[in-house]
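Dear Dr. H.,

I hope your travels went smoothly. While you were away I took the liberty of generating a structure for the chain from your last submission, since the lab meeting agenda had it listed for discussion. I wanted you to have the full record in hand beforehand rather than looking at slides cold. The sequence, exactly as received, is reproduced here:
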Amino acid sequence: MVTSNHDSSSSGNEARLIVTFFAKSRPSNAPSQTVPPHLEAFRSQSLACGPTFSSLLSPRVAPASLNLSSSRTLAPGIFQSIYSVTTPFPDPSRLRHHASIAAFEALHALEIVFDSIPLDPSAEPLRPVRLAVFDMDSTLIDQEVIDELARSIGITSAVASITARAMNGEIPFEQSLRERLALLKGVKADVWEDLKNVVTIAKGAKELVGHLREKGVITVVVSGGFAPMANWLKEQLGLDSAFANHLIVSPSDGSFPYPHLSGDLSPDHPIVVPEYKQLVLEKIAKERSIPLSETFVVGDGSNDLLMLGAAGLGVAWRAKERVQKEAPQRLNGTTLSDLIYLLGGHTEEHSP
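The corresponding predicted structure, in token form, is as follows:
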């Protein structure tokens, strides 16, 4: 289990514990004022869920005291409760991983995301975010680019099987990357233009990034994939920076009568391994004088776990099995715009 870099223990004697409930059957695009019939029960029960859940939560945060401050419906199938807690403050990641919480989720067909921040009556009730860092493949885009490169030369299954093992943490990422690249020797150097017509931006990514940019948040993609696609995505979404692996391009030769990928990584650029992803997060935060508690990270693979744990709020999105189990927080859905509700999006408020 990777614990989160939450900061509530460093400020005063009280903190906010933010608990967001997501119904697994929630609609992806329903207007906020419309509640489909199959979610009517969830909505009515959720407003009464605060006290019920509080009784489950109280023993988990003991010896700290717990008081329900507010409850609100954010959208059909999405509900949030905010608690005030006293020292010693609970770790949101440990709460998420507790067996009783998992049982509650299973019983009510929910996914629950926990966060905690210092109690500041003059501030927004949710975590302040000034830097957001995203993985690219299977997060901001729907595909794994390296698998699409393999598809272009008819070796999809060989490369995809290594990708799956790497993203689930079964083999070291750098080893898996080099093994896959060796198989891709000979791919045309201009393949990126073709891939731009194949790759699809994940549903809700534009809305999520747009929401962050409107709030002045620095947005970054850091990918174990490849620079041509990361830079393209940066332009498509209006991100501030992009970091990814650089490949060597070889000229035409006897084996390949056209410029082609050599199958090797450029020695002039860092390899984007898990440690480098975390380093990018920490380096940008330091350069911009942003505390890590004010950072937000989203990713899906085992190579994202370090940066997810280093962030103030790290959420594994539609993640691989191992990552679902180990990430500080996780959420599965059909649109990345659901993550906006963890950052202040809501429609109705109900005081207890």
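Two observations you may find useful: The CA atoms of residues 129 and 294 lie 4 Å apart. The first strand starts at residue 14 and ends at 23.

With kind regards,
E. W.
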